[in-house]
Amino acid sequence: MTGFFDIHSHFLPGLDDGPEDYGQCLEAAKRYVAIGVDRVIATPHWIQGSRWTPTPEEVRRRTAEAEQWLHEAGMGLILLPGMEIALSDSLCRHFIASDFISLAEQGYFLIEFPLISHLKATAADVVGTMLKRQQENHFIIAHPERCIMFQENLDSIRKMVAGGMLTQVNISSILGYSGKTAQMAALKLCNENLVHFLGSDSHARAGRMPPDPKEMSELAGLIGADAVAAGFRDNPNRLLLGEQVFPLQMKATEPGSTLFPSLPKKVVQGLLKLFRKQ
């Protein structure tokens, strides 16, 4: 397939823990082209209280510079500006849209919940607050499958999606590269139609590069080619056009079939039992 569109990529050098230089950007661009990606939203981290707090103007400028460099290097990849905004208690209460840049400047902000800790507010309070913010802005939750808040209780993400928030799951999580807990959570979210976008969350450096053709084939084997096309092509394009985005429809899984071909049979049976119980 072609026309893929990655909405989550740490592609810009020197802004966060992404690439160190344009050489690494070029290697990531080559991998994107190899799997049919022609557009990428650059989403450098924005973390309150850290040195990773780029302004919208800086992100726009760096994105344009990187795209120009790639074109001069013979790569026709289109880059669009964005941010991955780390959610804190204070930011949850006081989100000022003008401080940030939405994905491709289309009004959807990519937000990241803490990975290995909880916000001080209760889950119920966080859900309520973010749903109120959703009335003023639109949010896409980055890789909820990697966040302890959702791994321990998927009900929070169910309520946020029911309230209009969208989600993006990492391809690497589905493939198991972020551990079995994240993989189980990612597939459970897909299975419940709670996922709208797939993203690479590439950092354009060794170990965190965009997926290769073999990995994309494995991804299609796990969730179905239609779900891959919807999450990594169709919905990102709908986002860009301001159209309605629909949840991914994961391929039907027959009882006893293997979602994780490389895992022992007892583990697979346990995961399927977990899906049914939830």
Output the keywords.
single chain; 278 residues; alpha/beta; TIM Barrel; three-stranded parallel beta sheet; 11 helices
Fold and architecture overview:
The protein is α/β, with parallel strands linked by helices and 278 residues long. The chain has a single domain, classed as TIM Barrel (Alpha-Beta Barrel). The protein contains eleven helices and nine strands. The protein has helices spanning 22-34, 56-72, 89-93, 123-134, 148-152, 155-162, 171-174, 180-191, 213-223, 225-241, 265-277; strands at 4-9, 37-42, 45-46, 78-81, 84-86, 108-112, 138-142, 166-170, 197-199. Strands 3-5-6-7-8-9 form a six-stranded parallel beta sheet. A three-stranded parallel beta sheet has the order 1-2-4. Strand 6, helix 4 and strand 7 (138-142) form a beta-alpha-beta unit. Helix 4 packs parallel to helix 6 (155-162) and helix 9 crosses helix 10. The longest helix is centred in the N-terminal third of the chain and has 17 residues, at 56-72. The radius of gyration is 18 Å and the shape is globular. Mean pLDDT is 90; it is low at 253-278.
